[in-house]
Amino acid sequence: MFFEDLEYKGKEIPRTILGYGPFMAELYFGHRSRLYLDDLYNNPQNAANVIIESYNQGVRAINLVNDSKLLEAYDLAVDAGCEMKVIATIGKSDVDYLNPNYDVAKEVDWDEDIDLFSTYDCPIMLVDEFITDAYDWRLTTRMLNRINDTGSLSGLVTAFPSRTTDLLADNLDMDLFDFYMIPLNSLSYMMDINAFNASQRQEFVDRLLALNKKVIATRVLAAGVLKPKEAFSFLKSVDYVDAISIGVAKVEEAREDFELLKEF
Fold first, then answer.
1. Model's pTM, two decimal places?
2. Could you give the CA distance from residue 39 to residue 243 in angstroms, rounded to a whole number?
3. What tens digit of pLDDT does each residue of 110-167 get?
4. Interior CA angle at 14 toward 12 and 20, to 5°?
5. For a FRET experiment, which of 20, 71, 101, 245 has its CA 20 to 30 Å from that of 28?
6. pLDDT (tens digit per residue) in 5-25
7. CA of 75: how far to CAs of 34, 69, 116, 213, in Å?
């Protein structure tokens, strides 16, 4: 399932996407962030090796942001023969994930990001979560329109899948975007849901389905809290996820995790 393509509006989109979290040493990884900073972010060749192994395991898409070291790592992988589609996140800023300043996030040069990724094989561009979750609907609308003008499909990323989902239909033209990237895992880790029990899960799913968007699940491993087999078993049990984004930090992790994913 996860290694098939999603065919949508004339585009073929891989259902498994290599996430950028470890490559960017995102702070939500806790003490491992410092390790990722040294091993991956400050060493693009190491990051490229992880991308290459992911490609060798059948992964054909990568989530990228406009960051020079991340793009250097990707370019090294391309030079080694990796042909991946790019799922771009537009408007990524240096805002602290653990203590976000949404006003700062909204000042990022997102136009530059769109111009950049328009030169890639980029079927989808997603508005960054710190812009989506700032709830500046005029700005979000401008970004979605600009993305749509490029010919890429557009979407939103949110860190708050419960709260943001409730706000979208009343504040945004729902015809402007097709994809919705949300954190999703069996623990509700990094989700704005306190307890992901059966009744609460169904209520959330009903609200999500009402949006009628293609769902990309991210943080499926709960930043390493979940073992891959647990995470993949949960994803296989749901029928509303169209694609998944998974970050891996080592060549060995890429080999083991994606080989395991093929069994689901």
1. 0.96
2. 28
3. 999 999 999 999 999 999 999 999 999 999 999 999 999 999 999 999 999 999 999 9
4. 130
5. 71
6. 999 999 999 999 999 999 999
7. 24, 10, 14, 31
